[in-house]
Amino acid sequence: MLRFPVKKIRKQFKLLLLLVLLTSAVWFTYLHINQGKTIKLHFNYGKGRLFLSEPIRPGHHKSEDTSDSREDEAAVSLLSSALTCVSLTLCRQFKGQANLHVFEDWCGSSTAQLRKNLHFPHYPHTRTTLRKLAVAPKWKNYGLRIFGFLHPYRDGDFQFSVSSDDNSEFWLSSDESPLNARLLVYVGQLGTEWTAPGEFSKFRSQSSKSVHLISSRRYYFEILHKQDDKGSDHVEVGWRPFLPGLKYEVIDSAYISLYTDESNLKMNSVDHIPQTLASHIRLPEEGRGRSIPQHGADMLKPDPRDTFYSTPMIDPSRLENVLPACLYSPTYVVKDFPIARYQGLQFVYLSFVYPNDFTRLTHMERENKCFYRESPIYLEKFGFYKYMKMDEEEDDRPFFFPNPDGKLIITNIYIHTRTVDTLSFIVVLMSPDFLDEEEVVDVEDEVEIVGTQSPKKPSHPSQTSHTSDPSHPHSKSAPTPIYITRPRPAKERERDREREREQRRERREERASRHPREVFPGVFLYQTRKTTRLVNLGAKGGGITRSRSLVSAAQLWPNPPTKEGKTFPHNGSISIQGESVQTSDKLGRETSRSNPDNDPEPEPEEGEMSDYSYEEVEARPGWAEESINWQRTFSVNPMDFELLRSDWNDLRCNVSGNLQLAESEVVDVLAQYMEKLNERNGGIYTLLRIVNVEKRRDSARGNRYLVELELMERGRSVVRLSEYIYLLLHRSRQGEESLENTDFAPASAPPLLCQPVMLQWRKDVMVHFVVPVKNQARWVQQFISDMENLHLQTKDDNFNIIIVDFESEDMDVEQALRESTVPRYEYLRREGNFERSAGLQIGVDTIEDSHSIVFLCDLHIHFPLNILESIRKHCVEGRLAFAPIVMRLSCGSSPQAPDGYWEVNGFGLFGIYKSDFDKIGGMNTEEFKDRWGGEDWELLDRVLQNGLEVERLRLRNFFHYYHSKRGMWNTQNKKTLKG
């Protein structure tokens, strides 16, 4: 019987333990290396090694190869799978690119319209690749589908945004499978939405929530873009780490790779094209349950501000002594300062808000682009292309420019004639030093051709018509630049001058009767019977030639470069055959004129298209078609047009929203406040959400903030905090004078976060709505119904309705109030004609509590549910008055479809404490008796002169219904004359 060697094991226990540990280490190392082979692609991306790139097709799942034999087998199966990388060269082709499918000749501007295309998504017009997720083909009526893999450069949370003109969508998968792609961000769904290049924060739907990504993995992405025939076409996707203050960066080639290589596939090969929700989703209105499309106003989408009033308020005792008290005395208060009549508008400043409340009327910017601070004429003509820098140089395009020597250099003009001497060129460069006063010279002087050679005669006559064909024999020759110098010296021209003077006199009268058309600054286009001459008045001395051919004005602009056919560029090329010039502009319109003997052109016969026809010219055999560079990428910096705005009361643009406050500034201030709050209360509060922050800027003494936070108390209950705080700047008088125009300039001491004295708003103060009416039964009933709904939704009893009735005959107003469910009301009847100022004053006089708020109101108003709290927050007795900006609805618009504009000039809707209203003298009833209009500005002047601030904000969902003045107030209808 064998005995177990217990004694030997005891003696060699340490050695055995060491062997066990070494064996375990070797085993775990083997498992780690073997497992690493399955994700070899992820670790090798960007290192120039071989990797497999096999996308997932619908209904198939990628199998994880765990053996070297499987990897070798996949490496040699190129014929069975065109998606397998077998060489270093092929692998590099997958990197830095994304698949691009183009669907041309399809009208519309929404992505839903793109999905209606018969050939979408299987049969695009063009299959190509893209090296950056920012493309601007400079074309019209097309759709794009861009897809591939995204490779994050770090582990962590990212935020994505998309910008485009017109609609676009960005889909991202949670892994490399297209089946898991979900819509992340988008620009519009109705086709009316668009953004400027690099504008990543215009719409709420543009920016995503945080997305966690791992750098060792790849993620399938997909972009859909639709462009109509207007605007500056572009689409770009930006990303940034989910950290405050960081800007978006366009996703570059280093972080993308191909989904599949389509270079060797036929157009009818579609099995490799991914099928996703993005390519097959159907909108609700296309199904059986046909619904009304949602309006494009971002203000209609839910916002935490709208229902923040329903969250329980934090215990006021928790806020005592959190911050040290400080004196609040802003420099912009104009107490006892003489203000001219109606000039109080100049002393009203706007507040900054965070986060974006989307009060900007983006849905109205299709007609009104005043927000962008650009001339409407400029935007209509040139668009936003100046904000984009194309990645490819456009030096190989035909471009006209004068060099420093005064010579006109024209590059890339290709001549298909036997000799250069027969060239009749198309540009006239005017020299002010050469021309006589008020004289336009038209000289047919010979020009000097420098450094050129005459191309050989084509081997076949038909070859001369295929100038845009890259396969043409002459397309292999390098482009030869032609330099057109100054005209010959004056002595050589003298013998021809006498003959030309007679011709000039005959032309002078004809030119006087027509006007030049400016093509671009300093360059004018003159139209004669048979020729169009371009005159550059900006050059300081150059050659003068005469054109015998028609020139397209758009030809003078450098068009986008193309990678195909660089020798003979299609876009904007000029082919000269004898004396025939052929041009084409961006829109594909082409013009060809041939006049070999200067014979008069025949008039168009019946049935032919005249020169003034608005129909598009059909392409004819031999005419060059416009070439589009679908791979044209560009660079753009994130455009924050809010930086161009100031806090002055802008009376020019009525579609812009509230000013935006920088995120970094908010985070810095709230971090200090939360630290002080938890220090005072033992760390029981956790910040859940920043609901609203409003800043009134005073760069000399300090900024005032209204902070509204959603907090978690002791990990159990959610409370809201809404308080004014003050960031006091300690500066000397010299510092105030020198730094008054800066926000955070260096000071002698760090800013002090403190609690401003006498700047606390009352949460339960009574609000009185004062409304004068006369013979407006339908609007009075609507107003009462809105007040009933306000009470029903908010459960707030602390408001009162005061209606002053000027002998209404169309309804019993008092009876309607008695039957309503409003918490309290007062009905006052006054005889005589309607007087708004007198009616408001009568209503205010009935209020006994001088420490309550008066809201001077209009009858045709739609109130948001948070109107009561908004009035209370922005009215502080002895300090603040409130003049919210209302949105005037257009004719036919409603609160559910709010088309209109902000009433930036009106101050008729005004909230103020009763004590302050009495202090300034109330309404001016003497001057504004039987008329209204101007009484609000006059009241504003007196409010400011008494040292009150006027808070000016655009309120979400605060509308003024459209109505006409017909039949209102004291108007009398004219009697119809009977014949």
Automatic annotation (TrEMBL):
Pfam families: CHGN (PF05679). It is found in: Golgi apparatus, Golgi stack membrane. InterPro entries: Chond_GalNAc, CS_glycosyltransferase, Nucleotide-diphossugar_trans, PA14/GLEYA, PA14_dom. It is a single-pass type II membrane protein. Residues 489-514 have a biased composition (Basic and acidic residues). Residues 598-616 have a biased composition (Acidic residues). SUPFAM superfamilies: Nucleotide-diphospho-sugar transferases (SSF53448). Residues 449-514, 556-616 are annotated as: Disordered. It comes from the Eukaryota. This is Beta-1,4-N-acetylgalactosaminyltransferase.
